[in-house]
Amino acid sequence: MMANSVGGQASVVHQMPPASADLATTWAFLEEGVDHIMTKLQTGVSYSKYMGLYTVAYNYCTSSRMQGIGDSVGTSSRTGANLMGSDLYNNLIRYFITHLKGLKEQSDSLQEEALLRYYAGEWDRYTTGANYINRLFTLIERQRNGEAIDQGLVKKVVDSFVSLGLDDTDINKASLDVYKDHLEIPFLEATEKYYEQESESFLAENSVSDYLRKAEERLKEEEDRVDRYLNAETRKQLISKCEHVLIRQHAELMWESFQNLLDYDKDEDLQRMYALLSRIQEGLEPLRKRFEEHVKKAGLNAVSKLVGEGTEGADGLDPKA
User: Fold this and answer.
1) d(Cα 57, Cα 89) in Å, to the nearest integer?
2) Fewest C-beta atoms under 10 Å: which of 69, 88, 225, 307?
């Protein structure tokens, strides 16, 4: 049953179903929300509405009871969270097929400027949906800037992308394709851009020692971010991206500053630099060479000093003594 009927009839509003609701009741509620997103997203989606849709879908997918529903809303005689989730997924596919057919039928009779206006309007609706992801990234950026955010909300949004993934060859098997394509990839790009700008501006106003501390803190924060609300599969790529921007792109500056830290016995900074550069390939090799030269020079200076002191002592001796 469509939530928004045609022909001027009033929209049907479904009450949030209980956790034990069957497929027909669950889909009727979700379809109303899907239809709102697909046809009236420009009016916005309230937090309570979003949470209601998320909760109902979650309750149904995590249920383990038997289901047997008629063909009108999708047939199911299987059990298990993934299998039951596939029933909702199949209904969603049918909804989109019907929705897209309707869009095509509306455009078939249009020509020239009218067709272009129709296309532009549909594109605006599409980009409105895409902007929701940008808002998520903006929220994460605010946290990076030191603001407190609702991490639980971010996690629920992230989890919704994970839940959307189903393997086309096996409906029992979860897939991260939706999460990776629509969230992880743009998130990593946004992260790279953020830290490139921050690191450049920070180094322009602070010392290398200060930057070493900053980079160390940022890497720890990103590790923690994965634990708090990102999918674990993102960890490796996120940290690799951060290491490239925060360490690799500024490795030359670190190598050049190494000697100064040695000369002034900046032990903590040296330890921090070693730990950071050890995270990138060949990051420590320039330090090894510079340290060898430093030790050799220090040794020669020490020997020269001892020789000099010995010579002065010898000159001061009384040969008759």
Assistant:
1) 10
2) 307
